[in-house]
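Narrative of activities, Objective 1.

The group set out to show that a structural description can be obtained from nothing but a protein's sequence at a throughput compatible with the screening campaign. Below is one input-output pair from the validation batch, recorded exactly as produced.
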Amino acid sequence: MKVIVLGASGQIGSAIRANLKKNHEVVGTSRKGAAELVQFDPFQDDWTTLGQADVIINAIGQISAARSSGFHKVHVALPERIITHRKLLGNPRIIQISGLGASAKHPVEFLRTKGIADDLLLQHPDTVVIRPSIVCTPRTMMVRKMLMLSNMARVSFGLLPVPKGFLDTRIQPIMIQDLVDTIEALLRPHEQRIVNAVGPDAITFRQLIALLSETRNQKLRLIEIPRAATDVAVRHFVSRAFPNVINSQQYDLLFEDNTADAGPIEELLGRPMTPTRPFFIEQF
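Output recorded for this entry:
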């Protein structure tokens, strides 16, 4: 089976390509090009250069909008181009990597534009949308943010100010191999057209920080700051001056549970999902 992976240089896209090429012919693309990848700009280049395929996987996405590539361009205009050029590619099955909680009515632009794209793609046959929670890849964003908190605590005598309501938000991370196995299972038509890709356990940020503290043998004292104060600080200062620390999209998502029933994906794979606690211990 020939598979095209758009965004094969990203953390998720590269893992998809590496795993699928064991059993399939895989064409991985990257806008800047890289070793073993096809340099391809989906907004400028000729799609016929990719050849015909059985499946096309869209693994392109972003959590921060750049001036040259806003959320609408990356999350909506690109799927529109996939649909437009689908016939040239031999009418491949489309697998869209979206995000858990994506909805065309979501207040956060990241998930709203993902939801708009999902709705657009699902109007067409032989299309499946995978909505993963946080994906556990080495040095993933969540790990980097947690380690950043640990480093901050080293110079603040263990004190960590956090926005009120953040600590009880629940996430349900999924191991990258489980996500890749899900994608491979969906290379062929399946009755599920929307798959929520989550791990077996929901975990609060309070529990994750406690695991960080335990793993690094570091006493952390959490001080909850009223949400109104952190809203002003993050939106008007931190996200602008230090976007690598946190941006407004990431901040808004801190207060919304990101969980789902793991039963359907376990039924699809025919096995339990892999626990993620060992991953975080190893990364911390």
